[in-house]
Amino acid sequence: MEGLNQSTSIDFYMKAFDSHPELQPLFFTVFLIIYLAALLGNVVITTIIISDSRLHTPMYFFLINLSILDICCTTAAIPKILQIIQSKDKTISYSGCLAQLFIFSSALSTELILLAVMAYDRYVAICHPLHYSTMMSRRTCTLLAAAVWLLGAMNSTMHTTLILRLKFCQENTIRHFFCEIPPVLKAACSDTFINNVVIIMADVMLGMVCFLLTVISYTYIILTILRIRSAEKKKKAFSTCASHLTVVSLFYGGVIYTYVRPAFSSESEVDKVMSAVYAIISPVLNPIIYSLRNKEVINALKKLLNRNVVS
């Protein structure tokens, strides 16, 4: 089929729920609940941290950034999913698809780098506690956060720009929940070899480097904790990084599965499930993980609630 250039009006047909039309009301309800829960959880976490001066530390500063990214991630995907499920029109425009892809991939790559920075923060806190305030000063944290957001945006811009050079057919089917790089490339009519090569390079330079830095940080953290003699101090040290380690494990599993093998496998239902894990489920679980496993956050929440009740 002859490809059409970017100036032509192109629509993508989102074919994610067609195999189970009778379950679409259930899908709509589930996605709506997930979206509201993600928004509420991340807004609450951000509000708690901002309102309590005791939480104005580097770890919670980066946690606010994580909450903002989770909100961006779910907002980029779920509202359009709800619209597609609810309406008879199952299409998304070319420009709308690219905008969704850019926002989502930018949030994804930024979160990838941010988790590595948060691992470094825990490394400094546990392995170099006496120098923590100096090594993780406000200026350093601000520069790290700015670099994280900039690198994530640059990575997303690179992939989106390469997709702009592709030609797409008049009728395009994306067998996915939303416009993500791998399924969009599979819908292209022109050769995507360069795109796949760049994805693999980004996986190595960005994903694998961040993964290795996280592993190295936690290797030193574990070795330091094992040298602590007091069982109580061991428990306290581990509790400061347990939440982050849980989030990292959940996030990296889905991302590695989806992006490490973009050009070497066919579409499957497993792809959708793994994408849902890091794009939809993780933003819901992150606030829960950080609040339920963190006494400081729970105490700050109680303080905030008591203050509002009294007022």
> Helicity level, as a percent range?
over 70%
Across the major sheet, the strand order is 2-1-3
Average pLDDT, all residues: 83
- Kindly report how far apart the N and C termini lie: 67 Å
Could you list the spans in which at least 5 consecutive residues all have pLDDT below 50? 1-5
Sheet of most strands:
3 strands, mixed
DSSP E strands, number: 3
The secondary structure category is mainly alpha
Structure description:
The protein has 311 residues and is mainly alpha-helical. It has one domain: Rhopdopsin 7-helix transmembrane proteins. It is built from 10 helices and 3 strands, in the order βααβαααβααααα. The protein has helices at 24-51, 58-86, 94-127, 132-135, 138-164, 181-186, 193-226, 231-259, 269-292, 295-310; strands spanning 11-14, 91-93, 171-174. It has a 3-stranded mixed sheet with strand order 2-1-3. Helix 2 packs antiparallel against helix 3 and helix 3 runs antiparallel to helix 5. The N and C termini lie far apart (67 Å).
Question: TL;DR?
Answer:
With 311 residues, the chain is mostly helical. Helices cover 74% and strands 4% of the residues.
